[in-house]
Design a protein that fits this description.
heterodimer; A: about 525 residues; alpha+beta; five-stranded mixed β-sheet; 19 helices; B: about 475 residues; alpha/beta; ten-stranded mixed β-sheet; four-stranded parallel β-sheet; about 20% strand
Chain lengths: ~525, ~475
């Protein structure tokens, strides 16, 4: 039982490059491309080395050497073990096959890895004179899963790969095929997330989110001292209609990672706007964003260090940080083209007609509290709601028959449970849980029916995919376009039950006026 | 039916199981309800917020189902909500009417708020048809006829903490069988001097609660504390949380059921204002120590919980310097809700406000500055009429010298916000805040009030 050839070749190239760095103590500037391990994403070796150096110590381990152990599926026998020699920054540079004593696993509980780790640690110290910083234990099935994920990695498209990756990861976690000690915080976070999502297959979640994104072609520039790289992300729809059935099936995603050191720009001396504009033209993308990589990692760290589900205080803290970063345009982040909302004339004229939309004064400290308070007052401390995602574009129906047509248009339905103000659980519901064959499937009926199955449901919300797509497109991706009518049309769709419907109707959410809301969202002063 | 007073303490995996077990311990639902009888279930329906300000509807569904299995002809469900809210408001917001109908119950619009489009004569006629005038001490109370004429009366109470009575007992639940205006305690114009010292407000309130209880006593009482709310209490969810105690207390007598509920929660019932009042007035009628206890062993239960703050000064509100005088329970209760509302919902607005002195009660302490003084309640307004801060000294041209010379003159201090009422009404108070501090300084309050003030339009039906 070992990893497949494609994976191995790629891995050995990485080890070889990293080993040379040890000898030369400098980067090899030759742009050798490899794949990021277990992904089809190609990357320059030097960039991979730098990324690992930045990410690994904070997110996995900041000490040297790791032991990989492959065990039988009954978890009683060690099949193989490999010692990976690593630098302190986490880059692996050599792998050694070593023999381990099966006795170490005897009568051991793999959920209590500390003891097993100490046995391996002592053994390696005695035999090899090496100290390890952690162990990774894979069952044979885990290797099978990784092999099947990576076997056609050269030819598979990224979307299919990501779906497979989510599915594989879900299986590894859910079926206890992979153990890591000490467990990195991201692993704990993901495990809790899978549990929180009630073991919904993560590939299903990926597909749901993927489908909500409209087409886009953007770049994200991350910079930090000695590290400048560009991530190009493109979601597009193929024109080849011969073999594929729907637009959904023809859509694909491309991600590229580029090391800017190889590109002839002196990042430090050039003006931000000109620089971003040049990148935009060079890579033929529609928009580009620039973030500080270290700050991005700090935020990611804050996120994965959080308990899942988030406590209200933690949620408030994370949202405050995000809003603060968003309001600090041209301080913490840049984009080209510039978001239209930061245009002086737009701000001036909107102020003139009574709308103060100065995002520099975004009330980052008060908005999370407002959200929590409104959520608490409307939902209470123990609450269940059902969110139905519909897809009207998938069928042709009579516009007037929204309620009846839920049977055909329902795409996904989720049961969301909150307890003491925090999200406790999200469950993916089957269509049969929500839709009744014999009855009129109005939200009112769905609420009454589902209450007998899941307990009192306080609200049922239905929202169409096209509306979510429009929101993402108009308010997230196309921030640089002046398109007030399109934005207004999108907002007005919330009043059309075809796109958004809520039962029972909440007065506090009905007729929300932007004029009343803006003074809450935007500060009078800069705090 | 056996006249023995029985109370059952039960636990279960969910509220439904606990309540079924509780009723079974008392002899089953058929012991309480006979075939073709009409049943009224009195629930907590206080506001348009979520659980646990209102009853747990999972338990309501279960009780309706039980009544139906016993052969009940009709199962009515109802209650009067808090001030400035109609039953229609709450029903529309929570989708209650249709929901309860689906499970075989009927939400009763006790305030007739579902029938708004009618002439004044029709309204008066409807009011006469719906309510019976009942004399309680020196006060005429309008009591819903539907409850008076019902065959069987069930009280289903969600147990939470309560700022004045420690715990929201079934007696308090039964109190909202009547419209809010009859629950309100007013001080008489020539109130006795020791009205505050003797806390006459609380005494009157307790008497009124028992008057209502005596009008129609429930046949079955369910104190649902499966999910018990602790901390600041209803409406103040930020500082409250649900404690899943998993207990339900059912009984065939309200006082006994409340007595055991208090014991479960580790509170000495004799120190509870309501129970102690009852014991004082009814010695010998019911020996609370001889209650027939069923189900779980009371001695084995050891629940602890966080109570509401007992002192208003302990509620910290940014920019508010609290200056207390002698207060009665009326001002305590309203101040408790007001200050908690401010600190919970108006986080942003409080940053815009200047420092304020919040004076309440009779003869309150001196404010820190003559600016932005809030006088809360009639007592604070009346007892500070001659205080120094009522006037300010200002330099100006003196009229006595035909405006030729400057002089220091005394002027009325206009930086005072007076909130009258004994005790003041919360919605009125917030509207006065908005007027005094201006809308642009209170954007969040303005947002909430636009919604709250709209609900008021549908309320005053029973006062027509």
């Amino acid at each position: 039982m070992s990893l497949n050839k494609i994976f191995k070749e790629n891995w050995l190239k990485i080890l070889d490059f990293n080993a040379k760095i040890k000898e030369k103590k400098d980067f090899d500037k030759s742009q050798i491309k490899v794949r990021i391990p277990i992904t089809p994403l190609e990357i320059d070796l030097s960039l991979l080395y730098k990324l690992v150096s930045h990410i690994y110590p904070d997110f996995v381990n900041d000490k040297q050497n790791v032991l990989d152990i492959i065990i039988s599926n009954d978890q009683k026998k060690i099949e193989k073990s490999y010692l990976h020699l690593t630098y302190k920054n986490g880059n692996h540079y050599q792998v050694k096959k070593i023999d381990q004593n099966n006795e170490f696993l005897k009568d051991q509980d793999l959920n209590n890895l500390g003891e097993i780790f100490n046995k391996f640690q002592n053994n390696l110290r005695e035999k090899e004179g090496i100290t390890i910083s952690g162990i990774r234990i894979y069952t044979e099935k885990a290797i099978d899963k990784i092999n099947s994920l990576t076997s056609n990695i050269n030819i598979v498209d990224l979307k299919t790969y990501l779906i497979n990756l989510c599915h594989t990861f879900y299986n590894l976690i859910n079926k206890n095929m992979l153990y890591i000690y000490p467990e990195p915080s991201f692993m704990t976070f993901l495990k809790h997330l899978v549990k929180f999502l009630n073991f919904i297959d993560s590939s299903k979640i990926f597909i749901s989110i993927y489908e909500l994104f409209p087409e886009f072609n953007s770049g994200i520039l991350f910079t930090q001292e000695n590290l400048h790289f560009l991530v190009l992300i493109k979601k597009s729809t193929s024109n080849n209609k011969k073999n594929e059935k729907s637009i959904k099936d023809r859509s694909k995603i491309n991600i590229k990672l580029l090391d800017l050191e190889g590109i002839d720009y002196d990042f430090n001396t050039i003006n931000q706007k000109t620089f971003l504009k040049k990148l935009l033209k060079k890579f033929k993308i529609k928009s580009i964003y620039h973030f500080n990589f270290q700050q991005f990692l700090y935020y990611l760290n804050d996120l994965i260090e959080s308990d899942i589900p988030f406590e209200q205080g933690r949620f408030s803290f994370l949202l405050q940080k995000l809003l603060y970063a968003y309001k600090s345009y041209e301080i913490n982040w840049y984009s080209y083209p510039r978001p239209i909302i930061y245009n002086f004339f737009i701000k001036f004229f909107s102020r003139l007609v009574g709308y103060n939309v100065n995002l520099k004064k975004l009330s980052y400290w008060a908005i999370p509290e407002l959200i929590i308070n409104v959520q608490n007052s409307i939902l209470g401390l123990l609450n269940k709601i059902i969110i139905i995602i519909t897809d009207f574009k998938s069928i042709k129906i009579d516009k007037s028959k929204k309620q009846e047509s839920l049977k055909e248009t329902l795409s996904n339905a989720y049961l969301i449970i909150t307890f003491n103000g925090k999200l406790k659980n999200i469950q993916l519901l089957n269509k049969s849980d929500v839709i009744s064959e014999n009855q009129n499937n109005s939200l009112k009926n769905i609420r009454n029916e589902t209450s007998s199955r899941f307990g009192y449901i306080s609200s049922v919300i239905s929202i169409d995919k096209s509306l979510i797509k429009l929101i993402i497109q108009n308010f997230l991706l196309n921030q640089h376009r002046f398109n007030p009518f399109s934005n207004l049309i999108t907002l007005r769709k919330f009043r059309n039950p075809r796109y958004f419907n809520l039962y029972p109707n909440r007065k506090i959410l009905q007729n929300l006026r932007i004029r009343t809301l803006l003074p809450i969202l935007i500060d009078k002063f800069e705090f | 039916m056996n006249n023995e007073v029985s109370v059952s303490i039960t636990t279960g995996d969910n509220p439904k199981d606990a309540v079924i077990k509780g009723i079974n311990n008392l002899g089953g639902i058929s012991k309480f309800i006979e075939k073709d009888e009409t049943v009224f279930i009195k629930i907590n329906l206080t506001s348009i917020t979520g659980f646990p300000s209102n009853v747990n509807f999972n338990t309501v569904i279960e009780v309706i189902k039980l009544c139906k299995t016993a052969g009940a002809k009709k199962v009515y469900i109802g209650s009067f909500p808090s001030e400035n809210l109609s039953i229609k408001d709450v029903s529309d917001e929570l989708g209650l009417k249709e929901f309860l109908e689906y499970y075989g119950g009927e939400l009763v619009f006790l305030d007739n708020s579902n029938r708004l489009k009618m002439s004044n004569e029709e309204k008066l006629k409807l009011q006469k048809d719906s309510f019976k005038e009942v004399e309680a001490q020196d006060f005429i109370i309008q009591y819903p006829k539907i409850i008076l004429n019902i065959d069987k009366f069930i009280c289903l109470n969600q147990v939470n903490v309560h700022p004045l009575f420690n715990i929201h007992l079934s007696l308090l639940n039964l109190f909202s069988c009547i419209p809010f205006k009859f629950r309100k305690i007013f001080a008489k114009e020539n109130a006795e001097k020791d009205y505050i010292i003797t806390d006459q407000y609380k005494k009157n309130l307790i008497s009124r609660i028992f008057d209502i209880y005596d009008i129609k006593k429930p046949n079955l009482v369910i104190n649902d504390l499966f999910y018990f709310m602790e901390g600041a209490g209803p409406f103040i969810y930020k500082d409250s949380k649900i404690n899943p105690t998993k207990y339900t207390v059912c009984g065939n007598e309200a006082i006994a059921t409340d007595y055991i509920t208090l014991k479960i929660l580790g509170i000495n019932p004799k120190k509870n204002f309501l129970i102690s009042h009852w014991i004082e007035k009814n010695i010998g009628i019911l020996d609370l120590e001889k209650i027939n206890l069923l189900g779980e062993n009371l001695e084995d239960i050891n629940l602890t919980f966080k109570q509401c703050k007992k002192r208003i000064e302990d509620i910290y509100v940014q920019k508010f310097n609290i200056k207390k005088g002698q207060i009665c329970s009326g001002c305590f209760l309203q101040s408790y809700y007001l200050l908690n509302f401010l600190k919970t919902f108006l986080l942003k607005d409080l940053n815009y406000l200047p420092q304020c002195s919040y004076l309440f009660g009779a003869n309150p302490l001196e404010p820190d500055s003559p600016n932005n003084i809030i006088l809360y309640g009639d007592c604070a307004i009346k007892t500070t009429e001659k205080r120094e801060f009522r006037t300010i000294e200002k330099e100006g041209r003196d009229i006595k010298t035909l405006f030729l010379k400057k002089a220091i003159m005394e002027k009325k201090n206009k930086r005072i916000l007076e909130i009258p009422g004994c005790p003041p009404n919360l919605q009125d108070t917030l509207n006065r805040f908005l007027k005094y501090f201006k809308k642009n300084n209170l954007p969040t309050l303005n947002f909430y009030m636009k919604k709250l003030n709209k609900t008021k339009k549908t309320v005053d039906f029973d006062e027509s």
